[in-house]
Amino acid sequence: MRKPIIAGNWKMYKTLSEATDFIKALKPLVADVHDTGIVICAPYPVLKDIADEAADSNIEIGAENLFWEDEGAFTGEVSGPMLLAVGCRYVIIGHSERRQYFGETDETVNKKLFAAIKHTLLPIICVGETLEQREKNETFKVIEKQIKDGTKGLGAGDWGKVVIAYEPVWAIGTGKTATPEQAQEVHAYIRKLLPKDIANDIRILYGGSVKPDNIKELMAKPDIDGGLVGGASLKVDSFVKLIKH
Ligand code: PGA
Question: If you measure from the C-alpha of residue 198 to the centroid of ligand 1, how many angstroms do you get, rounded to a whole number?
């Protein structure tokens, strides 16, 4: 059985006090949740404080990015050991906004994946097609390339640490969710691309305008194992509704 995960992706939102207040408020409201993994991925400056705040709880903390080198002259970058040292357990890799605005490619995703695994961070690898690609019927081709190139060379023993997020670019922050059927179709396709012996154990999250009013029907699909949630993860009440859908 795959334990579902509801992961918030705060993107570039929340100052330090806003972030710690959120975790303080969230903790008691989800203390009774054991059947769902709860993850908050947040900007670097708040990670240490929210990880400390969440230390005695069932909330796990993740970063939204990392660089693949351990240290060096790479102004503005943050490494795996740094994230681990402040209490991160997860890291998002290859979010479509990173691909779109910061030049991330399947090759950089692959390097970051290996860096995450090396430092025992659990990667959440994002894949997804643009509207143009979907309209040209290229969805499966695009997803296949992102999965294959992004995870190239990953050893059999490391696949169990990987979480995948399918996030159609046209559904992110737009209010347009993929229908549960559209999402399920791609999730099932992704699962077929994964190594056979472990494919059924790997969590595949859906992301793109996940909200309290659509989470239930998405989660009812057999290959949807949770959500990677932007907008609806910024308010405690909507995030709790997603966790307790
Ligand atoms: P959204 O973002 O829920 O605001 O659409 C999802 C994401 O980008 O991970």
Answer: 27
Is the separation of the CB atoms in 129 and 172 below 8 Å? Answer: no
Euclidean distance between CA atoms 50 and 48, whole angstroms: 6
The strand pair at 203-207 and 59-63 is best described as unpaired
- Decide whether any atom of ligand 1 lies within 6 Å of the 226 Cβ: no
| Residue 2 CA: distances (Å) to CA of 35, 91, 205, 211 | 10, 19, 11, 22
Domain region containing 99: 5-243
Take residue 58 and report the two structure tokens written for it.
Answer: 């069932």
Q: pLDDT by residue (tens digit) across 20-47? A: 999 999 999 999 999 999 999 999 999 9
β-strand partners of 79: 67
Return the SS3 of 24: helix
Compute φ and ψ for 205, nearest 5 degrees: -90, 150
Distance CA 137, CA 232 (A): 29
Write the CATH number for 114. Answer: 3.20.20.70
- 56: CA distance to ligand 1 center in Å? 27
pTM: 0.98
Digit-coded pLDDT (tens) for 213-233: 999 999 999 999 999 999 999
**Radius of gyration over alpha carbons of the chain, in Å?**
17
- Bridge partners (DSSP) of residue 125 are 93, 164
In the chain, the amino acid numbered 129 is E
- Which residue has the CA at smallest separation from atom 1 of ligand 1? 230
